[in-house]
Amino acid sequence: MPGVLEERDRYTLYLVTAIAVIAIIIFWQLMVALIFAGSIAVILLPLHKRFTGRIGAEASAALVTVIMFLIFAAVVGFAVGLLAQNQEYLNSLVSTIISWAGPGHNNPITTALHINQTQLDGLIGNSNQMINQWADSVVAQIPALGFQLLVFFLSFSIFLYKGEDLYHSSFAMLPETLKEPVGQLTHTAVDTLYAIYVVQLIIVIITFLLALPFFYFLGFEHVLFFSTLAGLLKIVPILGPSILMAFLALYAVSISDMNALLLLIFIGYPVVCAFPDLFIRPVLMGRRTCIHPVIMWIGFVGGLYTLGLVGFVLGPLILVLLITGYHILKGDYTACSVGGKT
Fold first, then answer.
1. Inside any domain, residue 328
2. Nearest to 160, CA basis, from 72, 38, 250
3. CB within 10 Å: which end of the chain, N or C, has fewer?
4. Where in the sequence is the domain holding 34, given as residue range(s)?
């Protein structure tokens, strides 16, 4: 019967599966790069197909990879340049905070916590030591990070070039009874990946637009710098802009600007940091995948908590596939349409 594995082929499949599991265990340190490369390749596959019709599959995969690298380099270069351009201003903020917390200055926080000057000096010294150690560790990890990036772009190119052929050849070996549910799960997975990355880009833009009026009314200098930084930090979900708000709140305390502190606590964090992640992201994701926003929120936050950065992709993806599989088993699976929620 077409699509049904012979007994000999089953044993071959078991052997290949065992080798695949061993390979995953051996190359586990590279799985983050491979997962991101594969998931991004899926959403850029239409662009690859468009180029393939004109220049061939191999040249198209190389071209899309180069475009991806240039975009990555542009974003990193822009972020580094932005920080370098405003380094003097940032240094002045840090100096103000250190001066406020330094010797000879009584402040309400140390008074409330009953921290004496000797303890405070020790905390500052330990903090400086931790920052130096962190900087040293970052420098030491540059070779490993560079290797991860190399693996990412090479595997991204391979996924574009051969990924679809590999999927179709694997799909053809499935029993006929499995082809329909696997096809449905594949369709759902692709839709979810599109939603994850497209919604992430939308969230970055929304964060920037929300930050502009907030930082303008906050009264600090460099409104465009802080707004752009908040948007860039949103690339790291949940925690990104919160770090910026915490830093500015500490600065506001150091200059005794209680109005700014209240704005940061009651408007800055809820509107600029929490609102896009807790409300806009799950709603937009839910519309594309027909999954309830609360479930999508659990997928994002739970994935980040348990799996780290890669959980940003795997968390919601696994939940969506689980729910889709449940509906397939019930026999009531329907293609997602805007307005339907599970």
1. no
2. 38
3. N
4. 7-130+143-290
